[in-house]
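Researcher: I'm preparing a figure for a lab meeting and need a structural model of a single chain. I don't have an experimental structure, so a prediction will have to do for now. The sequence is pasted below. Please return the structure as tokens so I can convert it later.
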Amino acid sequence: MVRAYRSAVINSPLETVWATIRDFNALPSWHPAIAKSEIEGRLGSNAVGCVRNFSMKEGGHLREQLLALSDVDHCFTYNILVSPMPVMDYVATFRLTPITVGNRTFAEWWADFNVTSGTEQAMVAQIGDGVFVRGFEALEKKLARST
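Model: Understood. Here is the structure written out token by token.
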């Protein structure tokens, strides 16, 4: 099992960042790689157990299930059910922590997974930089425009 881990400082208050990412179905509103997303079934988009079904702008289809959500700890954990990436046993967490000096937010996003083909190093880079860092950068830009 390998871990992809990335972190960033987002120049917005924790409450603002959390309000933007908390909705498990909100990826298309802030992540540039996501074309559309919907929650399957009758569960709400923040109900533990809900499944988001989404499409990538560059092609590809994923299904992910929300495993945990905490408004106290400002984090959520999910796993991948279906992915075009060669991974299995993928579990990820996105967590926010307030930076009290300057009213900014420390964001962490990590995933533990097994690689089913290709190299572990390449997959860690693809997920860490292509998904996590790209998401942090887009989130920063979105929140800068809204202030």
